[in-house]
Write a structure and sequence with these properties.
By secondary structure, the chain is an alpha/beta fold. The chain has a single domain, classed as Dinitrogenase iron-molybdenum cofactor biosynthesis domain (Nucleotidyltransferase, domain 5). Helices cover 24% and strands 20% of the residues. The chain is built from three helices and five strands, in the order βββαβαβα. Strand 2 and strand 3 form a beta hairpin.
Length: 125
């Protein structure tokens, strides 16, 4: 199974990032081989809709789980409709995050966080 982590870079020195739509990159790990591949978050600088675009990028990559700190309502809805499970994870290295997922016991993200309006935030930021 493929899982994705929102993270701060594109190598094993990257740390998990609590942001989803605006994170720098995603680490995509295969839980069978434990191989990690990194990809830039194409939505990071989007003027709006970053969460939706980031979610679609991960759907297109074939992930079945997302580990992050927060999901806005739109990203949460898109991932949920695609059948992708979301889990909350604290700040740690990506390899540590993969190990934490493999051990089990991570808290599922059962509801969306608050909405953000664009890169500069808005009335809900």
């Amino acid at each position: 199974m493929k899982i994705a982590f929102s993270c701060t870079g594109t190598d094993d020195t990257a740390r998990t990032d609590p942001r989803f739509g605006r994170c720098e990159a995603f680490a995509v790990a295969d839980t069978e081989t434990q191989k990690i591949v990194y990809m830039q978050n194409a939505a990071q600088s989007a003027a709006g809709g970053a969460g939706i675009a980031a979610a679609q990028q991960l759907i297109d990559a074939g992930v079945k789980g997302v580990l992050t700190g927060n999901l806005g309502p739109n990203a949460f809805r898109v991932l949920n409709e695609a059948g992708i499970k979301a889990y909350r994870i604290g700040e740690m290295s990506v390899p540590e995050a993969l190990a934490a997922f493999m051990k089990g016991g991570l808290a599922p993200i059962g509801e969306a966080g608050r909405a953000h309006a664009g890169m500069r935030g808005g009335p809900n930021a």
